[in-house]
Amino acid sequence: MKANVQTKEALQVISDTLNEAQILLALDIVRKPNRVELNVTTEEKEVVFTCADPLKMENFLMKLKDTAPFHHDDIDELLTEIVS
């Protein structure tokens, strides 16, 4: 259950970061040997969210798409990366 709380908190932090950013410097997925990372960099913040399972990252990005309405296209690109 704790993982879900952390995921909800991470979703809120990343969503707030995207929604409040005036300049988005980077929004990308990095595949590591045992995990997938979502990196968000703005002019003020750098946030990293890590998942061991790419499917969980895909679900996280789908939820993020709902909470960060101005970044749908960016998130769609990340979803395409995860699937491929």
Account of the 3D structure:
With 84 residues, the protein is of the alpha+beta class. The protein is 54% helix and 27% strand. A 3-stranded antiparallel beta sheet has the order 1-2-3. Strand 1 and strand 2 form a beta hairpin.
User: Which structural class is indicated by helix and strand composition?
Assistant: alpha+beta
What is the CA-based Rg, rounded? 12 Å
Q: In what range is the share of β-strand residues?
A: 25-35%
First and last CA, distance: 29 Å
Supply the number of helical segments.
3
Largest sheet at a glance?
Answer: 3 strands, antiparallel
| Poorly predicted ranges | none
Q: Looking across the biggest beta sheet, what order are the strands in?
A: 1-2-3
Helix content: 40-55%
The number of E-state strands comes to: 3
Overall mean confidence score, pLDDT: 90
This entry's quaternary arrangement is: single chain
Shape: globular
SSE arrangement, N to C: HEEEHH
What is this structure, in a nutshell?
The protein has 84 residues and is an alpha+beta fold. The protein has helices at 2-20, 54-67, 72-83, and strands at 24-32, 35-42, 46-51.
